[in-house]
Amino acid sequence: MTARRALTLTLLTPVSASLGIAAVLAQTSPATPPAAPAQPPAAAAPAAPATPAPAASETPAATPAPASPPTAAQPPANPPPTQKAQIDPFGEEVTITAKKVISIKGTANWDNAFESLTDSLKTLTTILEKQGIKQAGPAIIVYTSADDTGLVYQAQLPVEQDPKSLPKDVTITKSPEGKVLKFIHRGSYDTMENTYEAITNHLDDKRLEANDTYIEEYDTDPLKTPEDKLVITIYVPPKTK
Description:
An eight-stranded antiparallel sheet has the order 1-6-8-7-3-4-2-5. The longest helix is centred in the middle third of the chain and has 18 residues, at about 115-130. It has a domain at about 90-235: Regulatory factor, effector binding domain (Multidrug-efflux Transporter 1 Regulator Bmrr, Chain A, Alpha-Beta Barrel). Helix 1 crosses helix 3 (about 190-205). Helices cover about 15% and strands about 25% of the residues. It is of the alpha+beta class.
């Protein structure tokens, strides 16, 4: 977490047939005078061709009714407007207001920082649940100092009602307020180093210096949300000139 440390330190698919007719020819004797020629036999009348019986009338097949014309295709409904991809703010200057919170101080080394932070938030959540008090906003972590070995922080939960009988290490106080630079981190706590490196580069490009503290606001509950689904808003108070 080199970049983060640097920021916290500085801050950061038909056929028909016909009959033939036969002709008979008479013969004469050669010794007798020729007689009148015999009448030729009458020609045989041709047999009348058989008249084929008319074919049984067939009832014509009913003409099928024409098929109904296909229904005209309905025009597609208007598609929903294309949504623009969400662009997270990065370096936007905003003003945050103070909230009433219960707070507990903690320390952690860089290897177990997330575990330490969630342990502190569990402590505060238990206090509120026992007293039937609802949390009034996202969990907050305020980093107050850091070095190569670890960091010091304040874990805070916003409330509207004051809890009673708090342990000695838990106090009722106010969260930070004032003008800050807003950045968004999405993903696990372990990948925050990349976000803090980008924050450091942004500050350098703008020739800005971070103040002595910086704030993480957990837009997703770190005690219930898978770590790779975390959404954290980071506020960096710039030094005033």
